[in-house]
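Interim report to the steering committee. The following record documents the input for Transmembrane protein (195 residues).
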Amino acid sequence: MSVALIGKVVWVLGIVAWYAIRYPSERRARRTRVVSDRRSTTEAVGLSAALLGLAFVPGFYVATGKPEAADYTAHLWAVILGAILFCMAMWVFRRTHKTLGRNWSISLQIREKHELISHGPYALVRHPMYTSFLLMALGQAFLLANWVVGLAGVIGFAVLFFLRVDKEERMMLEIFGPEYRAYMDRTKRIIPYIY
């Protein structure tokens, strides 16, 4: 098995793990009443960009090998690093879903009896879900030896993050007020102690 193929297999396994983690939360969310919905066209664009960059573009590449003109030589060290990053992403992703419980939502929504979560991964960063997507994007760039696919993940993450995080924080400030402001003062956004 070639190094490039190992990277593709690891990426596919990571995406299967991602869906296996996400699915129970999606099912539970359908049963919990939404009391405030802030979905918008901008949010839909961000979610679509992330899905395109982190799933569709790499999935097409894994299935077809295109665009092959953007391929470069796959190295074992890069695939190992990509696998580590992807595993870290899935660990953070799972912890985030587990910690959020019934508060989880794919979009900007407040659920009935919504609580401010500040423990688990939320003790280190305000948006660990975005942390997991950043780790996924970086892992993808190392796992799949193709410039277009590597950039697609990073760009998809960046579009989602920059279109959505400010709105998400404004919504949390409206709902939780000074409690969220104090939480913002003691945590970083997505990278512990840095940003």
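Strands lie at 34-37, 109-111. The committee is asked to note this result when reviewing the revised timeline.
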